[in-house]
Design goal:
Distance between the termini: 23 Å
Low-confidence stretches: none
Helix content: 25-40%
Order of helices and strands: EEEHH
Number of strands: 3
Number of domains: 1
Shape: flat
Strand content: 35-45%
Radius of gyration: 13 Å
Structural class: alpha+beta
Largest sheet: 3 strands, antiparallel
Strand order of the largest sheet: 1-2-3
Mean pLDDT: 96
Number of helices: 2
Length: about 50
């Protein structure tokens, strides 16, 4: 996992990549990061479902 930080239209972003060559990284800003943190347990349950 590669974690980078960047900027989009003047707003800070976090960029998550499976590896350096990732073609489509997952990126989001602070507002979505807060939503993820506030709902972490539900997201974890969703990710662990079969």
């Amino acid at each position: 996992m590669v974690v980078e930080f960047g900027e989009f239209k003047g707003n800070k972003m976090i960029i998550l990549k499976r590896g350096e060559d990732e073609k489509f990284p997952f990126s989001f800003g602070k507002n979505k990061a807060r939503m993820i943190v506030e709902n972490f347990d539900e997201i974890k349950r969703f990710a662990e479902e079969e």
